[in-house]
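[Q] Does anyone have a clean structure-token version of this?
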Amino acid sequence: MRSLKSDVTTSQDLSSAVLSYTTSYGRKFKLEQILFHASVAISENIIITLDSAEGANYDTVLADVTLVSEQDFIFRPQGQANFQAGDEIKIYSTNANVTGTLYATFKVQEVLL
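[A] Here you go.
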């Protein structure tokens, strides 16, 4: 059984720092998608990683994409994207020569079983 959770959002002014964010769900969940939107067209690298509850040896890069003069990117996992309690999702974006803000929205379902 699944329940749609409220969106989790984060943002970062890339002119002052990189975007580096880790979720804190703490329960089993299914990742539906992560929406990225920049206030201006950016050419930056975005990395999405599973931060495994089993420890750093089990962390896995889910996506590593380079945007080139783009404002939007949507990450949708291929197949089932079920995560265990304690697993989290980390996102990171570079910030070379950028003056805009990068926004991220996580869409997940909580696994109630």
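[Q] Thanks! Anything notable?
[A] Residues 51 and 88 are 5 Å apart (CA to CA).
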